[in-house]
Request: fold
Amino acid sequence: MGILIYTESDNGKFKKSALELASYGRTIADQLGVELIAVSFNHKDSQTLGHYGVERVIQISDPSLENFTAKPYAANLAAVAEENDVKLLILSSSANAKYLAPLLAVSLSAGYASNVVELPEYIQPLTVKRSCFTNKAFSTCILENEVNIIGLSSNSYGIRENTKEIVAVDKSVTPRETNLVVENIEKSSGEVSIADADIVVSGGRGLKGPENWHLIEDLASTLGAATACSKPVSDMGWRPHSEHVGQTGKPVASNLYVAIGVSGAIQHLAGINSSKVKLVINNDPEAPFFKAADYGVVADAFEVVPQLIEKLKIFKNS
Amino acid sequence: MKILVCISHVPDTTSKINFVDDSSAFDKNGVQFIINPNDEFGLTRAIWLQQKQQAEVTAITVGEVSCEPTLRKCLAIGANRAFRIDIKPTDGFQVAQQLSAHCKKENYDLIIAGRESIDYNGGMVPGMISALMGYNFVTNCMGLEIQGNTAKAKREIDGGIESICCALPLVIGAQKGLVEEKDLIIPNMRGIMQARQKSLTVLPANESQVKSSISKFEKPAPKGEVKMVDANQIDHLIELLHNEAKVI
Ligand SMILES: Cc1cc2nc3c(=O)[nH]c(=O)nc-3n(C[C@H](O)[C@H](O)[C@H](O)COP(=O)(O)OP(=O)(O)OC[C@H]3O[C@@H](n4cnc5c(N)ncnc54)[C@H](O)[C@@H]3O)c2cc1C
Reply:
């Protein structure tokens, strides 16, 4: 009996979420006195996982797993879970993890709770708090099954070092027939994705037009942040849909969310609520967003953002 | 081509979220219900396939009689027929099982469900249907073309877009991009009149299991006061973000 985490990597490095899963899984493994096992695909770096509390990593490398495809990945995770008598699996909230989790749940006859935001309240029966109503509320969810899957909300637990002696085991691939082919992957070049970003800089209709987006982009690149926007901005084609955040767009759970010229409509706030710190810049002191903000500046974006960029550059270089 | 669109009946996006019965149930009092936005993008894409490629579009929901106005709206938007599986939805697995039991009798070529609903945000129904049916599956689906037995789909990934080719039958988790906001169909008088004549059949529930239950709901803790910083004191703002909030 152990706990299994699915660790994702990108460009030959574990993603931050993988280390967060390890930290979270470690804490539960200690409570239960069981082993923390990780699975990694086409990436070998047991030392890093050991730092965050993993005791055994099962490494599966195969050309057929080079591009993520949900069914083969789910089949391989299910095989490891069954072979090791795993009762609790922990996945991240990445697009890929959310893609395979329901497949894995069916194949293991497991219960599945997505968007879990804390350590389990109880282990028996497994009781977890998850966000619902697009971050407007939380529910306490009880999973009374032999095997359960937790999808951990990103950035909800944090990364904690806890070095363990780790054993790396290579395992051969469990082949899974599929006629689904990934023909092409178009990466938005060089930028940080909203899902992985520590800081997100978001622009609304207050920026008046796409020609002014250099303000958002410059501020984001100064902060090493991802760029985002409100729904009307993407609907009008000022920015790509992939940047639309909110209730009907992407959720944001960054450490810092900077909103510029965004009014703070309920649907926008719903999606960005789980960001830890919110800075709002708006020229209207009555903008509803200020009520949901931690820091606010009443100012014309066109005047204050260039100053903010300048001063941040000085701060970063000091 | 036979298309099934799975519809979730959810509170309008502007709804105030409150709970009743000792915080164990959502307070429906005064709440307007709508077609889940992700489902509506999928429904609209299905209607285009009906108009251009002679698809037959069925809308289905798992829910009680109170969901019927939402299904009527789907008929007014253009679905050919609708089904309601008569059971109170309690968890994603149960809903997926109910829908799969129906799908097994109908041989749909394409099953569309929203990537996730805006109420429980489980994000599991489309994937579980695909697993229970043994069909192909693409979630976060933001583009779909079908020729003969082949689908070309686009999936939004973290930081990019993936192009996928696969055979039907296929289940997709729908989202914006499949059609745009401006493409959503607002039912006109003719559509609303026609919808009254279309069939909305109530199906008895099949046996299904539940794998999770909700013991209580809560709202986020009220947050502290906003700290306002003068526009002429940007240095102070940076200092607060660095020393107090520790985010830069
Ligand atoms: C079903 C549904 C789903 C929705 N889902 C989402 C969603 O997921 N995400 C989302 O964002 N919205 C969503 N919306 C839309 C939402 O209701 C708002 O309309 C939208 O968020 C407003 O966008 P905005 O803040 O950019 O624009 P506006 O509301 O027009 O606000 C612009 C703001 O900019 C400020 N401003 C203007 N000029 C300046 C300046 N020079 N300097 C500084 N500030 C300035 C103004 O004071 C104002 O506050 C949804 C709506 C519906 C009905």
Notes: The mean pLDDT of chain A is 96. Residues 2-171 of chain A form a domain with the Rossmann fold fold (CATH 3.40.50.620). The longest strand of chain A covers residues 35-41.
